[in-house]
Write a structure and sequence with these properties.
Shape: elongated
Number of strands: 0
Radius of gyration: 25 Å
Main location: membrane
Number of helices: 2
Function: Essential subunit of the Sec protein translocation channel SecYEG. Clamps together the 2 halves of SecY. May contact the channel plug during translocation.
Helix content: over 70%
Pfam family, one: SecE
Strand content: under 5%
Order of helices and strands: HH
Protein name: Protein translocase subunit SecE
Distance between the termini: 76 Å
Membrane topology: Single-pass membrane protein
Length: about 60
């Protein structure tokens, strides 16, 4: 039982050290991730389209 109490006390102490992000920081991170994923998706779509076109020309 002593170990359990010590565990909870240490957990509480560690949680006080945590710095949670502000709402604005979370929003900015979300927007950044969304933009990067969109750009990478568009790039991969373009590369796929180009490669498909080239392969189609070679096969014909």
């Amino acid at each position: 039982m002593e170990k359990l109490i010590t565990y909870f006390k240490l957990s509480k102490t560690e949680l006080r050290k945590v710095i949670f992000p502000l709402k604005e920081q979370v929003r900015n991170a979300y927007i950044t991730v969304f933009v990067v994923v969109t750009v990478v998706s568009l790039f991969l779509t373009l590369v796929d389209w180009i490669m498909s076109s080239v392969i189609s020309l070679i096969i014909k």
